[in-house]
Structure prediction request, 992 residues.
Amino acid sequence: MTENSVEKSPNVELNWARVGEKWRKKWSESRIFESEPQSHKKKYFLTVAYPYPNSPQHVGHGRTYTLADVHARYKRMKSYNVLFPMGFHYTGTPIVSMSQRIKSNDLELIETFKQIYKIPTNIISSFKEPKKIASFFHEEIKHGMIEMGYSIDWTREFTTIDKGYSKFISWQFRNLRKNGLIVQGSHPVGWCPQDQNPVSQHDTIGDVEPELIEYVLVKFKFEEQYILPTATLRPETIFGVTNLWINPDIKYVIALVNNEKWIVTKDAAKKLEFLNLSISIISEIDGFELIGKSAFDRLRNKHVPIFPASFVDPYSGTGIVMSVPAHSPYDYQALVDLRKDADILKKYHITVDIAPIKVIHSDTFLSNDRSPAESIVASYSITDQNDSKLEEATNKLYSDEFHNGILLPDIAIIGNLSVVKARETIREKIINEEIGATMYELKNAVKCRCGTPCVVKLLTNQWFINYGDEGWKKLAHELVNNMEILPEEIRQEFINVIDWLKERACARKSGLGTKLPWDNEWIIESLADSVIYMAYYPLSRYISNTIDSQNSEHKVLADNLSDSFFDYVLLGKNDRDLVAKDSKISVHLLEKIKNEFLYYYPVDSRHSGRDLVPNHLVFFIFNHAAIFTKNKWPKQIVVNGSVLMEGKKMSKSLGNIIPLRHAIDEFGADSVRLTMLASAEILQDSDFSFDLVKGIRSKLFEIYRTISDHKNIFTTTQNSLDHNELEDTWFSSRIQHIILDTTSAIEKFRIREALHNILYLMDNDLQWYQKRKLAKNKSKYNNYLKEFFDIRIKLLSPFAPFFCEEVWEIMGNHSFISLAQWPEANNSKISLEAEDNERLIQDVILDIQKITKVTKIVPKKIMIYTSSTIKSIIYKKLLDKMQRRSTANFGVLMKEFVNDNEVKDFVKRNPDLVKKMIDDILSESLEVRHRRMKTNSFNELIPLQDAISLLISEIGNQQLEVRIYSEDNNDKYDPKQKSKFARPYKPAIYIE
Ligand SMILES: [Zn+2]
Prediction:
């Protein structure tokens, strides 16, 4: 294909690669996305989570960035001075552990790089050096972003290991510490035993946040010298324990734990070790050896028997379970089953001679002779312990007792307390008296990126950010309450996370990043150094990380940055002259930097994927609340769902990861962008499918061809706007509606809806309009079409920027559409009457087609009768009454009509017709009803007369005679007395 072939012949495929390259070059040369403070212009500062450069971006990454870019482009067209910058997040262990895997010749990783990402072998071998990995993928991702058409201001780019950035993060941390928000202590964290480092979402395979469970261990005595610790989440039920469960088929160990001899599973012994208990294993013991013996409960001074249970999981808790049959459906059912199992009873010489002990009262389960567990097992018709309904029954009972339960009055220590209170009270008591202890484990099976299964570790001397601080939580709530969250339905999730968040480890012993300023053994971790960096963007281009003599008077050297600089620029503290002197820059430059910050901050919008709500986004809120004054708090968060590939989650094992740049090569950036956005509303997962991307590409091509076909309307001036016909008024009115609807959809991030308007609804309008024109033998080329195309391309341009620039140029424009004004609807062009006109014509055509299809008549004559004046009056009154009295009750409405002199005679004679008219109204949308109420006098004859030519061409016979009469017309041709069936907006039809 030659350079000019696209312009010459619209019948060839659009060359997407060439169009992409052409506009990337033009945008870059004209620097149109670089933003400078402009005092007369309103700014809009939006950011999206900067990427981790440890792999190329794939299609799944693209959605959040594309949404942010659409937002940026939309705001730019709304005349804002938009700043949309980007940085690169090098911090953390993933890049380092990746380089270790390359060093150790990890074939799986090397194959992934080769096969999926097509990285040359010599480059892969350079990845032994972590920074090589980061800088390689940094460039890769950046190119992808440029090829996707993201309107990013690249002059502010930085990485999180730049010296200037480290100075900024040190400032952030000293600031938090000064406010008492950094604490040191022992806390449980998710942990990789291999790397000897805490793990959070970013460090795990599949980006899973490790979730911790805190158990209470109740220590039962066994044969005087041993302890049988049972792990429970419900220590308040301890007084209801009737027996213990042990798995006879697994091995246990006897271990010396802080001078006590505990019997636990091997796995539990390992877990306890990470919790800093001193453990040494003495011997092994088979589970069956314990069955039939008894354990001693020191709280109640009583023995309980030990029974066998195969459901006891060696990997959960300690492998010893306390049985509370009155309040645990599993325990209840297991006892029922055991009683029936003669073989087992005989094998272990046991008898099950126990009754459930009820300890909790709740109004939901009031039966006197049955325990709550028995009641719920019965109500779910559960028959044995393998029944899957047990899980649901358990959740229901636990939840009910947690929220509504009260301990029975005769229970020692915790009698009469609510379950919530009792749990805390008994926990504290048994731990203090060393009858109990605490144990943590992971709720979910999480693997570190190095492949090692994670555990819970009790870290000592670890640095934490104290998100549990009550005062801080209050501020975070205040910030969220004053912030717009899109979509609004996700607000509660933010509130919940703020409430449950506690201390969080903020430093690691290894990885890339900034050292903790007061303790150089530690490196600040990646979810802690990425929470207020948006404030660094306005500064970054003034900070030089290396000595750069050319720019020395325009930049501040990172080495010279101190806390006083950031205090002055970001918080307005300290003396200007002193700060300038300390930083070795002019007062002028210092003021310039500060003013730039003040101009752009706060963040107007923060975009992110939904998976970052429970960590990054909430930390972003907390840290802004702690560090910045209220007028610098972020104003909006936009959250989107993820991307599926052909309906499936993307994963390496499924081999369905498509690198973004490959998708761009194959389909063009615009089609990829639209596919990500068009298949789902924002919070849902969108589905990237090849059929969809191909469909969208041909849709774009169709738009391209239509506009190319009409090329001459853009170059010749016509003054046809003044003699407008019915369809012109309608077309123009529709355009205004589309502008209004699309704009409000974008404002609320209902992107799918916006695209539906632009890509599909506008097509319907265009087709109808052209049909009407063609039937009248009118030229297809006119100024209404020009307006239509102009608006359509503008509305589409934030979504498909390359395509729209190209088409914009074909339309004879010499400016960038990226900088064009967003269309404003002209309310004076909205005509409700015109919309009713065209609707009526469409309805009548459909009715005629239905009749001819059913009767199989080839019509020679068609008579159309519009309803009489009196019917129109009644219709209007009905609309008004139904809205005012908000009733559609026939009797009520008739009663009012009977007292109405204008209509009472007609109404009394034709009650059925009134009933039909009520049904007609009910079948219309509220919008249409409202429109018809506002339309003063609607004369159906006018549009129908106007559309006779269209009726003839649509029904398809040039000899066809079409006549339109009002029912009131005494000269009408009405051989079958059809006209009396006419109703407003529902003309009667006679065909012969
Ligand atoms: Zn690891």
Remarks:
- Residues 1-11 have pLDDT under 50 and may be disordered.
- Residues 192, 194-195, 448, 450, 452 surround zinc ion (CB under 6 Å).
- Residues 342 and 351 are 10 Å apart (CA to CA).
- Residues 751-775 form the longest helix (25 residues).
